Model the fold of this input.
Amino acid sequence: MTTQAGKPLAIALENCAKTFPDGTRALEPLDFAIHAGETVVFLGPSGCGKTTTLRIIAGLEEPDAGGRVLFDGEDVTRLPIEQRNVGMVFQSYALFPNMTVAGNIGYGLRIRGTQEAALKARVGEMLDMMQIARLADRRIDQLSGGQRQRVALARALAVRPRALLLDEPLTALDAKLRDTLRLDIDSLLRSLGITAIYVTHDQAEAMALGDRIVVMEHGRVAQIGEPREIYQRPATRFVAEFIGTMNRLTGSAKNGVFSCKAGNLPWAEAPANATEILFRPEDIRVAESHEETGLQGTVAAAFFLGDRTRLFVEVGEARPLVIESTARRAFRHGETVRLAIDPRGLVVL
Amino acid sequence: MRHESRRLILLLLPAGIFFAAFFLLPMARLFFIGGSGKTGWAAYAAILTDAHYFSSLLSTLGVATATTAATLAISGISGVFLQRHKFPGNGALVAMLTLPLAFPGVVIGFMVIMLAGRMGLIGQVTQALTGEKLVFAYTMSGLFMGYVYFSIPRTILTVMAAAEKLDPRLEEAARSLGASPWRVVLDVIIPGLKPAFISAGAICFATAVGAFGTAFTLAAKINVLPMVIYTEFTLSANIAMAAALSFVLGIVTWLVLAVARTAAGSSVAAAG
Done:
């Protein structure tokens, strides 16, 4: 596709912090390099500094003194956003209500003084790419949320930006549309090969889209890594709890066995000082009757979801264990179940 | 269904009575009085054929248009600025800006004289600088100044309320696409404030057409319709002519506002 200005952009943040005039620290000093063509997702709860980071990269905020933003090695810290040539997509779409769909998509080109014929061709190309050609002459208030975000993407990409910055682009959409558009954004980013920075609080979005995920908390980076790494090897308790569901058992380890209220779990590599083990719902299952296992609990709730049953099993901890069971059987409330845990999924923090 | 329409009529009644009592009936009465003078219905024709009446009609509309344009320009800039930049004393300044609303037209005329009259500040400064005294309080320029002064408060408050509702993301989106600050004003802020400009501009225009106190204070060379109506009514006792002029003043103002509204409405549709 002919959407890129040239080769993808590499972005580097050096010692970028942000303190607002009222003294609140939105972002602790951050050093981070985004590789050319990579999709990086900044993930975290609201107020974690992810949007501030995006705005610093965009040029909508300046980092505190001493911070630098580099585009392909060139210092752009003092360059305002209008000279950085980055495409932006917002949660609220931010489409111009006084222009048509085509007018919105062509806006950036018109500002650049693009000739009418070339502008028209480019707008047509973008309309086709986003599958919204039939909406070209519509007013913005005649569009649904999903259509609006497609227009916003087309508008941002029409000027062949050096990077695409997306600030919670799917948050305002309903669940089903979110899934479709997420797929479309994914294939768009892959096919364009553009450097993309994506901010979200939705871990499913982050896992699906990110080449790398930066998990943030209170203005600090909690962990940087590929989705699989973040999910399977969370570096902190915050990351573990924020992404997906995490089960927890407290107890003590001795001679390759972890003992807790639910019973004993043989685990050869158990660190001697482990007082708490964490694992995902998919790493625990209800044991078959012939299996040997030293763990058991009581079913507190069972939800049949069709392809599986989600069980909440009481084991004397602060929270019941969550188990996704694919067993072809019904579970009764109060029933005692024996449990098997795959030691490969165990995490000690 | 019938019950529903009866309820609607009942709800429409207050507006209907008000409209009839305070608008339709007086206007109709005014219209007939206008035709009851010595010259009969020719009084209406005289407004267009008599040079004195016609020029006063034109200058009234002229000063009202100029006032509206200047007021919108000044209030647009200051309104957005005051909304965006909070500084110590911001609230006090906004409160002070609304002060002219409390002044009667006479006081505003008096202020214009103090500023641009024969003993005024501008006269003294220009005499000191160029040796020639600049005096314009008693002309259309003085009237224009007074009208702008008392039109600014209402307009500024409307603009500030509208500026608060502008989505800052729209401006950021425009900038990300390469728009300079000036283009952002042109393509995002002005279109966003347009409804406020239209409603505030309409009030500003109508007020400037009908204002009397300021013109009366500045008097002398000023030839605007409210003044002419006053003269016809009190000095010449030509009640029919005064009524005819009043009626035309009302109709012309209504017409201008209606045209402005439709033009704005259709331009919004065309742009969208």
Summary: Chain B has twelve helices and no strands.
